[in-house]
Amino acid sequence: IISGLYLGSNTVSAQSSTDCLGVKDVFQIQQSTVSELSSIMNGKSFYADKDAENNTEDYFDYDLNLKSSFWSGSRSGLGKMGVYSMGPRKNLVIYQAGSQCYKQLFGLYEKFPAKNSSSNQKCKRSVYSAPNDKTIEFRQYFSEYGDKQYSILVYSNTELNASIANAKRVKAQAEEEVRRQQEAELAQQREK
Hints:
Elements: E1 4-7, E2 10-13, H1 23-30, H2 34-43, E3 46-48, H3 56-60, E4 67-73, E5 80-85, E6 91-96, H4 99-109, E7 116-119, E8 123-130, E9 134-142, E10 148-156, H5 157-191
């Protein structure tokens, strides 16, 4: 479907207002190559943000150690975006959108049943399937001061699961190495 994105048996409009990224935009970014990304982001009024930090651990409990680039919107409300390369034309997109842009994109999906949803005192999360093993996930965070932050994640399920499994393996190996070093130090102390 060219004029919209397929979601189960329904179509989600891919239109966007001039001040916000649309569904088509975030999926285009998710599928872009490194060489295409700069042109796309500049065309959407985002500039490279050299001061941003890798924050995959905040979202998935593990540092996924992926090649990344970070972008900030040049207009108010556009927000920030991290684009993490998971393979050819398979990026993890973490879009920290402004309230209006988040609500615009989420409004296109919220009328459909979510594949998965959860809510607690800190975060409300709604996950929707898209074609070709893609997922679009909406997260609304609540602070103790009543502030809200909004994130939209777009990714390939297969690639994300493989990256998380690899990060778990690396973390387990590092923890095992630390445990071995501690045991060796204890053994040396006992010999003294």
